[in-house]
């Protein structure tokens, strides 16, 4: 599995020192990162990535709320092959009609992205994984309405917060899932309770094993009470050490 890091994890550090933070991540051992809102600083980010030998195969940007041409153009500048919309509000996941409308918007974005050579995906929070009255999850309904070219990046922690067995969900979604967010903690909706990978209750290795079409596993902490670079380092070391012997 190729490891990446969602740069939202180190957003405070990036605001203070973008090149220095990327240098620190390369020093940890990361070769890939996943930028967010990269269309806002693509030139500076491209330079810092190149200087530190980092690539960005995927990135987050608000495709359904911002100028898509600007986003896709920035993605080409950065070498980002997959642009993932990270957030559709909770109130848009209550009915199949609303979910189908989101799928249609993502399909349209994917058609535009194709002209730039860029693929489109979607990333979940917990509300897409709560079940509708018919017993299906919103994310699975979305997948049924998406064109085959649109991929999913499943945030496995938020899936668990939404009440799902993350590994079973990945099995059901199959090869639609090309990226996963790997995070750990007590499985609550409080971001500040998250922990370095391996220190929480998530069945990390079962989750990874269930993602059979994975292009990258993306480490992320939405927040953390301690030093974030230390948490990122611990997560990287846990994942690169491999599954512990039973």
Description:
With about 250 residues, this protein is of the alpha/beta class. Helix content is about 40%, strand content about 10%. The longest helix is centred in the middle third of the chain and has 19 residues. The chain is globular. The two termini are about 20 Å apart. The model has no long low-confidence stretch (mean pLDDT about 95).
What topology does this entry show?
Layout (H helix, E strand, L loop, with lengths): L2 E3 L5 H6 L1 H11 L13 H10 L6 E3 L7 H11 L3 E4 L10 H19 L4 E5 L14 H8 L5 E5 H6 L4 H8 L3 E6 L21 H7 L5 E4 L8 H14 L5
Parallel strand pairs: 1-7, 2-3, 3-4, 4-5, 5-6, 6-7
Helix pairs in contact: 2-3, 3-4, 5-6, 8-9
Order of helices and strands: EHHHEHEHEHEHHEHEH
Q: Order of strands side by side in the largest beta sheet?
A: 1-7-6-5-4-3-2
Please state the structural category.
alpha/beta
Number of helices: 10
> How much helix, percentage-wise, in residues?
40-55%
